[in-house]
Amino acid sequence: MIKLLDNVCREIARTGCKKIILLNAHGGNLGLVALYTMLQLYTPKDYVVSIVSPFGAIGALQQPWPRADDGHAGPGETSLMLALRPDLVDMSKIPADDEGKARGRLQALRAAGVQIGIWWYADHPTYYVGNAAHGTAEAGERILDAIAQSIARAVRAIKADTAAKQPQHEFFAAAHAPS
């Protein structure tokens, strides 16, 4: 995936675009895209890669469900699907038990500041987090609006930016000719 991202970004830059925006729309990609942005520091470039993740906008919204009841396939994502493609949602199949609650199987490690690759599965072996029963199409529309506003704000800031390229240039100049 890193090689693919790098190849795509180099090709975009080759065509003349010097500000490249990658929109991250999946929480599971946060580590990968953070790694990719740091890998930009290994080779001089005449372009800047920016990652936009609108998840903060979603978290800032007041929702009609407890924050602890939201997560993967929880009310937020269910609300999005109810707004976008209600024909794909069958609310009668939402688990009525505590399937969406974290198992806490690695709690001692997490409390010690340790993370391992299997953390997600250890807590959520069915990949369901929260309680989707709270989802509504109206909440989905509010979430979509917040996402759109967040992305638009980020794109405007990136377009207006004149500063990011300079420290990147300085960094590579210093790395290649240390004083």
Task: Record the SSE blueprint.
Elements: H1 2-14, E1 19-23, H2 30-39, E2 48-52, H3 55-60, H4 75-84, H5 107-111, H6 119-123, H7 137-160, H8 165-176
Parallel strand pairs: 1-2
Helix pairs in contact: 4-7
Considering the chains and any ligands shown, give keywords for the structure.
179 residues; mainly alpha; 6% strand; two-stranded parallel ribbon
Short recap of the structure:
This protein has 179 residues and is mostly helical. Helices cover 47% and strands 6% of the residues. It has a two-stranded parallel ribbon.
Mean pLDDT: 92
- Number of alpha- plus pi-helical segments: 8
Largest sheet report: 2 strands, parallel
Oligomer description:
single chain
Indicate the overall shape.
Answer: globular
CA radius of gyration is: 20 Å
Poorly predicted regions are: none
The secondary structure category is mainly alpha
Structure, explained:
- With 179 residues, the chain is mainly alpha-helical.
- The chain has helices at 2-14, 30-39, 55-60, 75-84, 107-111, 119-123, 137-160, 165-176, and strands at residues 19-23, 48-52.
- It contains eight helices and two strands; from the N terminus they run αβαβαααααα.
- A two-stranded parallel ribbon has the order 1-2.
- The longest helix has 24 residues, at 137-160.
- The radius of gyration is 20 Å and the shape is globular.
